[in-house]
């Protein structure tokens, strides 16, 4: 199975295209062992945050102002172990497991905090993922300036390390193909589509907004597929990892047909445990065994390219379904107003 499913991501040879996405579960050694045993091709650690790295620096020079100047909050260390434990975890996982261990960083602006990537590399990280979350920006800052801000960070990061770098973006870019081109020029080796976004809400009583993190919705793969296709329109030499909503072998196969080289699974592991990795890997293997492809490499080679054409042709994918049908699929479960007793018997 390993040779049949072998693939390449960021120049690394993987035994499986199914990776474990960035999350706190990958800091737990026993969980990682189970995930690798289930067939995970690589492991991505949770992101170290810009605030944590800056706090570490300020603690050495000006500890009384470290928290205020960095924005660090102690609960951040509970998420990823903190800057020192993080490096030890890379070393331990790299020594214990045969699959690539990918480190991750999360930040919004350029600075010497990025030099922490060198320590990640020295600790044994096989590659690095830079996670860029959108923020609330000033109206005086244009979209072009925000895109350039991302590219500046990526240029600094790629110049700091010799290991490959992938950039994890949100879908909130007008032209993903253009952003992919800029990132490739900046030195990125790949893209992860997409970074997981929190859910926003507003408290009516407090008249204030709130943010919370949730698992990816069960039927959320569609937006990932769209983003991959839009990114591939640039015909660039960047590898793509599908991230967000991949929970079955069918989701993984669809993602790879759309243009992903590998898939990352996270929320499904929280829901169903490490065994979900085995199910996806076995499903992909069965798909290859029953089709005309001798290997995953042959399957990936057979994918159609994304070809650009006149604007009216490029509008067809959204225009045709909108105008050619009077019936629209409703993915929302039907909620009944029926009531019953504690045993589930309906009241008549």
TrEMBL record:
This is Dihydroorotate dehydrogenase B (NAD(+)), catalytic subunit. Gene3D superfamilies: Aldolase class I. Pathway: Pyrimidine metabolism; UMP biosynthesis via de novo pathway. The gene is pyrDB. Its cofactor is FMN. Keywords: Flavoprotein, FMN, Oxidoreductase, Pyrimidine biosynthesis. InterPro entries: Aldolase_TIM, DHO_dehydrogenase, Dihydroorotate_DH_1_2, Dihydroorotate_DH_cat. SUPFAM superfamilies: FMN-linked oxidoreductases. Residues 5-288 form the Dihydroorotate dehydrogenase catalytic domain. It comes from Novipirellula caenicola. It comes from the Bacteria.
């Amino acid at each position: 199975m390993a040779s049949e499913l072998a693939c390449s991501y960021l120049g690394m040879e993987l035994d499986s295209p199914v990776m474990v996405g960035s999350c706190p579960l990958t800091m737990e050694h026993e969980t990682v062992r189970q995930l690798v045993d289930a067939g995970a091709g690589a492991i991505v650690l949770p992101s170290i945050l810009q605030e944590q790295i800056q706090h570490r620096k300020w603690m050495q020079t000006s500890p009384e102002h470290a928290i205020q100047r960095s924005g660090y909050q102690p609960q951040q260390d509970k998420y990823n172990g903190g800057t020192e434990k993080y490096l030890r975890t890379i070393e331990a996982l790299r020594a214990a497991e045969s699959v690539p261990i990918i480190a991750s960083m999360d930040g919004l602006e350029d600075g010497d905090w990025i030099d922490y990537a060198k320590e990640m590399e020295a600790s044994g990280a096989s590659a690095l993922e830079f996670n860029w979350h959108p923020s609330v920006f000033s109206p005086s800052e244009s979209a072009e300036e925000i895109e350039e801000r991302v590219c500046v960070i990526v240029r600094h990061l790629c110049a700091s390390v010799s290991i490959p770098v992938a950039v994890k973006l949100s879908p909130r870019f007008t032209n993903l193909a253009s952003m992919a081109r800029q990132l490739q020029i900046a030195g990125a080796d790949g893209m992860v589509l997409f970074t997981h976004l929190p859910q926003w809400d507003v408290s009516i009583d407090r008249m204030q907004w709130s943010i919370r993190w949730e698992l990816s919705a069960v039927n959320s793969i569609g937006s990932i597929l769209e983003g991959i296709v839009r990114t591939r329109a640039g015909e660039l030499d960047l590898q793509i990892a599908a991230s967000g909503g991949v929970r079955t072998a069918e989701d993984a196969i669809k993602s790879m047909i759309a243009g992903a080289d590998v898939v990352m699974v996270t929320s499904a592991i929280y829901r169903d445990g490490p065994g979900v990795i085995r199910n996806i890997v076995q499903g992909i293997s069965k798909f290859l065994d029953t089709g005309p492809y001798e290997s995953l490499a042959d399957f990936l080679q057979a994918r159609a390219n994304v070809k650009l054409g006149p604007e009216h042709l490029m509008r067809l994918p959204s225009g045709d379904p909108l105008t050619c049908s009077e019936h629209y699929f409703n993915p929302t479960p039907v909620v009944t107003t029926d009531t019953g007793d504690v045993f589930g018997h309906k009241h008549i």
